[in-house]
Write a structure and sequence with these properties.
mainly alpha, 2 domains, 13 helices, globular
Length: 332
């Protein structure tokens, strides 16, 4: 197993686990803060928390800083990170949890399709199967009858957030080789301040200090650490594969609800979990085994006893693709 890819998979799963705790806690915080204000506090918590960690790191550990050529993707990332959480928090406040879970998982498919059609990221047949099973299991987990498919205003907002994050994931992918700390700090502070300005303009109030503290802490864990690990995974295995592993989030969230709220794990959940494991298995195999061979022939000339002799040498080597614009690995 490629050690770097194994670590990247671990990052992607950890990112899903950290993000999974955000929805149930956010639902409770919405009783004390407006949706746009809460979105702002979550991102500010991410930026501030990762900023403190950044200050403690050595220069060598901070990575390469962003340059002027990265500006278009950075600007797109920030703008989409302002729009997406505002849409999501408004959707959470306006529709049922089943609807939010069902539609929010469209981010997985959106990320993969945008990566494939716009950013030309290679997606293998195994990965398409992984996306199919993951999407199917997410629908099974969320579906609670025909009412879950009703497209209310809140549902459309959640769907819009998923599409925004799909584009944002791909913008972030294009700069993911740069300093992860700088990317998360920019995401958190710029998106958080942008959302805060919008919240104040539309008349939302800053909540009580305990609510602010909880929201900032939640933002650091569920957004800051989650985004940090997501970017680290993206830089190695690409946007589509990372998004597939991120689909574990709703299942982890359901397990957290079971442990904290003593909600029963239904047969529907267990069946969906099996399908999710199948989809994740496809994604893992695709991530670790997506490599093929090339056969090359070389002509070599030797001088022997004053006579030039020609020899044709044929060799085969493995060739691993890790996404567009990323380094290729050759094993001779």
């Amino acid at each position: 197993m490629d050690n770097k890819k194994a670590i990247a998979i671990g990052y992607a799963i950890a990112a899903a686990a950290f993000y999974a705790i955000s929805t149930p806690i956010s639902k409770m915080l919405l009783d004390h803060a407006g949706p746009t204000m809460l979105a702002a506090l979550l991102y500010l918590g991410a930026g501030i928390g990762i900023g403190f960690i950044f200050l403690l790191k050595d220069k060598e550990q901070k990575g390469d800083m962003l340059t002027r050529s990265d500006l278009p993707y950075t600007a797109g990332m920030i703008a989409l990170d302002i729009a997406a959480p505002i849409l999501l928090m408004n959707g959470v406040a306006r529709t049922a949890a089943a609807n939010v879970s069902l539609l929010n998982n469209f981010e997985i498919v959106a990320t993969a399709l945008i990566a494939f059609f716009i950013f030309r990221e290679k997606i293998s047949k195994r990965m398409w199967w992984a996306l199919f099973f993951i999407t199917l299991s997410s629908i099974m987990l969320s579906f609670e009858g025909t009412e879950s498919l009703k497209f209310s205003t809140g549902s459309l907002m959640v769907l819009g957030a998923a599409v925004c994050w799909g584009f944002e994931n791909n913008c972030t992918k294009m700069i993911s080789s740069k300093s992860t700390y700088e990317i998360v700090i920019l995401k958190g502070m710029c998106s958080g301040l942008g959302s805060l300005c919008i919240a104040l303009i539309i008349g939302e109030k800053i909540p009580a200090l305990p609510v602010v503290a909880i929201a900032l802490a939640l933002g650091f864990v569920a957004y800051g650490l989650s985004i940090f690990m997501y970017i680290r995974a993206q830089s190695e295995i690409g946007a589509a594969k990372t998004s597939a592993f991120y689909a574990l989030a709703p299942f982890i969230g359901a397990l957290v609800s079971f442990l904290l709220l003593h909600e029963a794990l239904s047969q529907q959940y267990l069946l969906g979990l099996l399908i999710m494991i199948l989809g994740s298995a496809f994604a893992i195999v695709d991530t670790l085994k997506y490599r093929h061979s090339h056969i090359h022939s070389h002509t070599v000339y030797h001088m022997r006893k004053g006579v030039i002799e020609k020899e044709v040498i044929t060799h085969e080597h493995e060739h691993s693709h890790i996404g567009p614009g990323l380094a290729h690995h050759h094993s001779h």
